[in-house]
């Protein structure tokens, strides 16, 4: 199984977006999560550093500037999705990546506090 490191820059990016209320509270993540074509379109107009800010994890050993390097996507490249954060938390918990699980939990709490 791959090992992952928490992407602190992505967590900070997500916090900024949440505080600016740039989030979607109710979405079906399976229907709205970015696919390969969406990722490619984003990368056509944005730098890899910007792409990385949408992913809570960094795959250990994967090369920078490859999609394999950036797991745990948190939004649709415009807004954070609550359902994406839930998916990140669940998947990280399932695979026992505790730092990512806890970061996603904290982001979920921030979304819920901000939207209340």
Structural description of this entry:
The protein has helices at residues 8-19, 29-32, 36-45, 48-52, 82-94, 98-115, and strands spanning 4-6, 23-24, 57-59, 80-81. It has one domain (4-115). With 116 residues, the chain is mostly helical. The termini are far apart. The mean pLDDT is 97. The strands form 2 sheets. It has a two-stranded antiparallel ribbon with strand order 1-3. The chain has a two-stranded parallel sheet with strand order 2-4.
Tell me the layout of helices and strands.
Elements lengths: L3 E3 L1 H12 L3 E2 L4 H4 L3 H10 L2 H5 L4 E3 L20 E2 H13 L3 H18 L1
Number of domains: 1
Question: N-to-C SSE series?
Answer: EHEHHHEEHH
Name the helicity range. Answer: 40-55%
**Poorly predicted tracts of residues:** none
Strand content range: 5-15%
Number of strands: 4
CA-based gyration radius: 13 Å
Compute the separation of the termini in Å.
38 Å
Question: Rough shape?
Answer: globular
Q: Main sheet?
A: 2 strands, antiparallel
Number of helices: 6
What's the average pLDDT? 97
Determine the structural class based on helices, strands and strand pairing: mainly alpha
Query: Biggest sheet, strands in spatial order?
Result: 1-3
């Amino acid at each position: 199984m791959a090992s992952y490191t928490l992407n602190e820059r992505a967590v900070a990016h997500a916090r900024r977006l949440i505080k600016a209320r740039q989030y979607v509270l109710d979405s079906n993540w399976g229907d709205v999560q970015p696919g390969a074509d969406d990722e490619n379109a984003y990368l056509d107009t944005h730098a890899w550093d910007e792409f990385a800010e949408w992913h809570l994890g960094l795959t250990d050993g994967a090369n920078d500037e490859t999609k394999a390097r950036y797991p745990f996507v948190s939004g649709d490249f415009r807004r954070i999705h609550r359902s994406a954060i839930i998916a990140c938390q669940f998947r990280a918990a399932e695979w026992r990546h505790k730092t990512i699980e806890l970061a996603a939990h904290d982001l979920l709490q921030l979304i819920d506090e901000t939207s209340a």
